[in-house]
Design brief:
Number of helices: 17
Shape: globular
Strand content: 15-25%
Helix content: 25-40%
Bound molecules: adenosine monophosphate
Radius of gyration: 23 Å
Length: 559
């Protein structure tokens, strides 16, 4: 047990209303199984099918199931107890998949932190969720995560167990061999016993939201609804055991877990797990005969890459996500005779997709329709409670069988983030568009203050707070600036004490605070005063226009 036992995770969660839970279950949307029990069912149905194809090797469903049973028992032998939280800082590799299911089978709760997170994020999140374990990639090219993990334990009330991927010669348990000497049948029995103690409506996973105030918010996802989300997504694309689902975006994100790992496995399909680097990823996807792939904004250039052509021999479908899709991209896919569609999704829940039967115009210009027949979507006047007239732009608000009812342990924030009748205010702007007689959702911008850097969300309020901690900075306003590759990057407007502050100063400041690099501003503009609106708020629109026109007139782009 942890030195100071963290409080029960359920106490910080907002439950779904019980009549709705009954309805979702009666309608067959939610099952009665945990994620681990779902994997077991699939492994029994498709034992010899490949479950994971990666640069490190291929593993069948039977192999994955057996090895993760052993790993789960190995994790328990470290003294980790069901419901203990484990932080994940790992990349896309076969062992990450083993670790994921091993943790779930042991009844542990993965916390989807990123390998990019520094002490600034891990220190705060690990305390908020009472994390006990910390899984890190010992071979990370980015930095020495093992030393980092050891440092994080210093003075921490609960964090005490480091687990590694690929630790060679280190005196730490490694996913690759933990539990490998345990008899497989005994391990299966022990996992079954652990799973019987878990509630399918209990918390399975903690995801993180980019957040728009202070610090990132924690998203509790439950076994039954999380698996339903993934399976509904897989079925919408008609995936089955012959499908090979490629994935290049970091796996331990909501998109990676839901759209790739769980979705593929829910229907007995193989996950083709690649890293985000196209030069390596595309040849692996081609060799594995990938049939479907999700391309986030940061990977749209894949279609122009020389290694894309061999992939088109097996590729049937590309799902585009993350931002408005340019016509050149859809044209290129049409020329290659590849079906394309769009996904709009979020860690908090709601997915909308362009269904297989949607007309090409809807697939090119909209994000389609909600995934579930039980999803409820309303477009409200921003910050108000009144629906906008048909066809007009409003804030996309949603509730349904896989959308959270509240962030974890965030009562005050939840009152603003949800309507009184339980709709989640996404902060995205949308409108219904009728195309060939059917309504489709079109994303028209956002009101939430964040920078979407190639899919990683930068919480602007958090970065501004860090900037004004710099001794020479008096005021700071961060806005997105357009970027051809990543969609957006962060530009900081600063008012200083009269002394200049440049990008190097800001980078040194963020390095000292150990802030994840994707949040670092990538351009600094010094101003005498921040422009204000009539009500005294910083006029971000003016700042965005200013930086966009500077970039357009100089055609400069940040490195
Ligand atoms: P995350 O929870 O990190 O997946 O981020 C969810 C947010 O990403 C949404 O609320 C949107 O702001 C943005 N997003 C996701 N998909 C799309 C899309 N297809 N088009 C535009 N924005 C998107």
């Amino acid at each position: 047990m942890a030195e100071q036992a963290p409080r029960d995770i359920a106490a910080g969660c907002t439950p779904y209303p019980p009549p709705l839970v009954q309805d979702y279950r009666r309608s067959g949307l939610w099952g009665n199984d945990t994620i681990s029990q779902q994997l077991l069912r699939v492994a029994r149905t498709h034992p010899d099918q490949p479950a994971v194809i990666s640069a490190e090797g291929t593993m069948s469903f039977a192999g994955l199931n057996r090895r993760t049973d052993q790993l789960a028992v190995g994790l328990r032998s470290l003294g980790l107890e069901p419901h203990d939280r484990v932080l994940l800082q790992v990349g896309n590799q076969l062992s990450t998949v083993l670790a994921w299911y091993g943790l779930l089978k042991a009844g542990l709760i993965p916390v989807c932190t990123l390998d990019a997170h520094g002490g600034h994020e891990i220190g705060e999140i690990s305390r908020r969720v009472g994390a006990v374990g910390h899984l890190v990639d010992a071979g990370s090219q980015r930095r020495d995560l093992v030393t980092f993990a050891r440092a994080q334990q210093d003075g921490h009330p609960t964090l005490r167990q480091i687990i590694t991927l690929g630790a060679d010669g280190l005196d730490l348990p490694a996913v690759e061999d933990l539990g490998s000497d345990i008899d497989a049948a005994d391990a299966a029995e022990e996992v079954a016993a652990i799973q019987r103690t878990l509630d399918p409506d209990g918390v399975a996973v903690l995801q993180l939201s980019g957040g728009t105030t202070g610090t990132p918010k924690v998203i509790p996802r439950l076994h039954a609804e999380y698996w339903y989300n993934a399976e509904a997504y897989a079925r919408a694309w008609n995936w089955g055991r012959g499908s090979r689902v490629g994935h290049m975006i970091p796996l331990v994100h909501n998109a990676g877990i839901t759209c790739a790992l769980h979705a593929a496995h829910s229907v007995g399909a193989a996950l083709v797990l690649a890293t985000p680097v196209l030069d390596q990823a595309l040849p692996l996807l081609a060799r594995a005969g990938t049939t479907d792939v999700l391309l986030g904004h940061g990977h749209w250039s894949a279609v122009e890459h020389p290694a894309f052509a061999p992939l088109t021999r097996s590729l049937r479908r590309v799902i585009l996500s993350g931002a408005k899709v340019p016509p050149g991209l859809t044209k290129r896919l049409e020329e290659a005779d590849i079906w394309f569609g769009q996904l709009f999704g979020m860690g908090e829940g709601l997915f909308t997709i362009t269904p297989l039967e949607a007309p090409p115009a809807a697939r090119a210009s909209t994000v389609g329709v909600p995934l579930s027949p039980r999803d409820e979507v309303v477009l409200l006047e921003p910050a108000g409670d009144r629906p906008v007239p048909d066809g007009e732009v409003g804030e996309l608000c949603c509730r349904g069988p896989y959308t959270i009812r509240g962030y974890y342990d965030a009562a005050e924030h939840n009152t603003a983030a949800f309507t009184t009748d339980g709709y989640y205010r996404t902060g995205d702007l949308a409108a219904w568009r009728t195309i060939e007689g059917t309504s489709h959702l079109s994303i028209e911008g956002r009101i939430k203050d964040l920078v979407n850097r190639g899919g990683e969300k930068v919480n602007v309020a958090e970065v501004e707070g860090l900037l004004v901690d710099h001794p020479r900075v008096r005021e700071a306003a961060v806005v997105s600036m357009p970027d051809a590759r990543l969609g957006e990057r962060a530009c900081a407007y600063l008012v200083t004490d009269g002394q200049p502050v440049d990008l190097q100063d800001v980078q040194a400041h963020f390095r000292r605070l150990d802030v994840a690099k994707f949040k670092w501003p990538e351009r600094i503009e010094l101003v005498d005063a921040l422009p204000r609106t009539l009500v005294g708020k910083v006029d971000k629109r003016r700042l965005r226009d200013d930086i966009t026109s500077k970039l357009t007139t100089t055609t400069e782009s940040p490195a």
